Amino acid sequence: MESTFSRSTIPTEIDLFEWAKEVEERGAGEILFTSMNHDGTKNGFANKALAQLSDMLNIPIIASGGAGNVQHFIDTFTIGKSDAALAASVFHFNEISIPELKKELKEHHIEVRL
């Protein structure tokens, strides 16, 4: 998987996982990972890549891109091993309520601030 920049329009020819390890070594405190292939799809987060990042790094991983329902959040914390997750449109268009999401996450033993 290749890293890109400028809204994923410019390829870097740098492997995502090598780059993530390097930025951790340079002192990054966390990584915000947005999969441009998932962003806006509402089909779920890139959990395979997120889990791989989580397994190889010692800093928090924030999942971004792909949230479409409550189960997607549950999956990114359990399957994707994400430390945090963000979303926008599902909240802006009231497709998911934040209190309901927090309740569901807590019921699945995922730590949240209520």
From TrEMBL:
It comes from the Bacteria. GO terms for molecular function: imidazoleglycerol-phosphate synthase activity. Pathway: Amino-acid biosynthesis. GO terms for biological process: L-histidine biosynthetic process. Keywords: Amino-acid biosynthesis, Histidine biosynthesis. This is Imidazole glycerol phosphate synthase cyclase subunit. InterPro entries: Aldolase_TIM, His_biosynth, IGPS_HisA/HisF, RibuloseP-bd_barrel. It comes from Jejuia pallidilutea. Belongs to the HisA/HisF family.
